[in-house]
């Protein structure tokens, strides 16, 4: 009988040991599970904190955001090497019968000269969006005709603009009144400097923009309002670009009389007045002496631009000609030493 009792006691002890081992294993499993839950909660908390910090952080400045976006945009475009190289990037947009030029400095500052006619506004907005533009440091209206400022109204309503420049000669047109209203409603600073020996537009520390025309004369006595156009010389390093707006040979002669010919020398000339016969005269071409000419005009336009006489003057000097009506938008890179055609 005692033997049997001893047997049952050993069996009880063995069961107890098994129960203790099971309890320990269960406790260990629970501890492991709690540890995993703690790690998961800490991870979720960190993610939530990062999102909150990102949401509360102040927005980047338009220029900084633009620079990053522009580099990202350029890396996926045919002209991707443009921003991979240091230089001034210039695109002459195909806006039909009108003018529109986009410039981006090596530091990322942006400038739009003219915006084409109103019908080209969406094309201009699409281009700026493709470039990753979030704001424009400056906008210049070469003069106040509708084929140069029509598209600017939508641009100013869409993007923040640092400074707007236009010549101080009012145009009596509905398009001009709409532009003026847009500038006022969007609280854009407007400056209207005239040409002089030292007249510069403050845009980028590495790029000089010099105003060569118009002057403070009574342009009401001049037959063509086109002669109130800005003529601008843009210089980066030893490379330069001359934007002639719609200036005719009258304005060209006035400017050449007021300033030394050296002020007009440029590698690239945006031909005046879409290549009309009354612009880009012989003396003006001699002073500029470009290797590349850009003509912005509409395909089969009613004015017959560019005029054959103008083309003959360019061809006689072996100047390479690019036309938006035939070539579409044209992009150049001025790297400070050379001019490269990217598109």
Describe this structure as you would to a colleague.
β10, α8 and β11 form a beta-alpha-beta unit. This protein has eleven helices and 15 strands. 39% of the residues lie in helices and 20% in strands. The termini are far apart. The strands form two sheets. The chain has an eight-stranded mixed β-sheet with strand order 6-5-4-3-2-1-14-15. With 343 residues, the protein is of the alpha/beta class.
Strand order of the largest sheet: 6-5-4-3-2-1-14-15
Portion of residues within helices: 25-40%
Shape: globular
Poorly predicted sequence stretches spanning 5 or more consecutive residues: 1-11, 48-83
SSE-based structural type: alpha/beta
Feature tags:
343 residues, alpha/beta, 8-stranded mixed β-sheet, 7-stranded mixed β-sheet, 15 strands
Walk me through the topology:
Elements: H1 2-56, H2 62-74, H3 81-84, E1 88-92, E2 101-104, E3 110-113, H4 121-130, E4 136-140, H5 146-149, H6 152-158, E5 161-165, H7 174-185, E6 189-191, E7 200-204, E8 207-213, E9 231-236, E10 239-243, H8 249-258, E11 268-270, H9 282-288, E12 292-295, H10 308-316, E13 320-323, H11 324-327, E14 330-334, E15 339-341
Parallel strand pairs: 3-4, 4-5, 5-6, 10-11, 11-12, 12-13
Antiparallel strand pairs: 1-2, 1-14, 2-3, 7-8, 8-9, 9-10, 14-15
Provide a concise account of the structure shown.
The chain is of the alpha/beta class and 343 residues long. Helix content is 39%, strand content 20%.
């Amino acid at each position: 009988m005692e033997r049997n009792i001893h047997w049952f006691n050993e069996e009880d002890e063995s069961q107890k040991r098994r129960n203790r081992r099971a309890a320990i294993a269960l406790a260990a499993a629970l501890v492991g599970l709690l540890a995993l839950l703690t790690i998961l909660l800490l991870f979720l908390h960190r993610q939530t904190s990062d999102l909150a910090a990102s949401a509360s952080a102040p927005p980047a400045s338009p220029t900084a955001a633009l620079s990053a976006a522009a580099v990202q945009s350029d890396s996926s475009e045919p002209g991707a090497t443009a921003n991979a190289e240091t230089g001034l990037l210039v695109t002459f947009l195909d806006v039909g019968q009108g003018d529109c030029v986009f410039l981006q400095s090596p530091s990322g500052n942006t400038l739009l000269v003219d915006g084409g006619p109103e019908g080209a506004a969406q094309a201009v907005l699409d281009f700026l969006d493709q470039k990753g533009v979030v704001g424009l440091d400056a906008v210049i209206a070469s003069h106040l005709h509708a084929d140069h400022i029509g598209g600017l109204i939508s641009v100013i309503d869409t993007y923040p603009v640092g400074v707007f420049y236009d010549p101080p000669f009012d145009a009596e047109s509905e398009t001009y009144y709409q532009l003026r209203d847009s500038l006022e409603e969007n609280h854009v600073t407007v400056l209207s400097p005239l040409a002089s020996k030292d007249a510069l537009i403050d845009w980028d520390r590495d790029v000089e923009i010099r105003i060569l025309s118009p002057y403070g004369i009574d342009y009401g006595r001049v037959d063509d309002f086109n002669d109130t156009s800005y003529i601008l010389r843009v210089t980066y390093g030893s490379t330069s670009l001359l934007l002639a707006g719609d200036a005719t040979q009258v304005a060209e002669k006035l400017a050449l009389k007021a300033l030394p010919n050296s002020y007009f020398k440029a590698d690239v000339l945006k031909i005046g007045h879409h290549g009309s016969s009354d612009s880009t005269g012989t003396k003006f071409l001699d002073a500029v002496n470009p290797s590349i000419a850009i003509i912005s005009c509409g395909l089969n336009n009613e004015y017959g631009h560019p005029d054959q006489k103008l083309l003959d003057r360019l061809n006689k000097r072996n100047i390479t000609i690019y036309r938006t009506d035939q070539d579409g938008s044209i992009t150049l890179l001025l790297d400070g030493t050379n001019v490269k055609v990217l598109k």
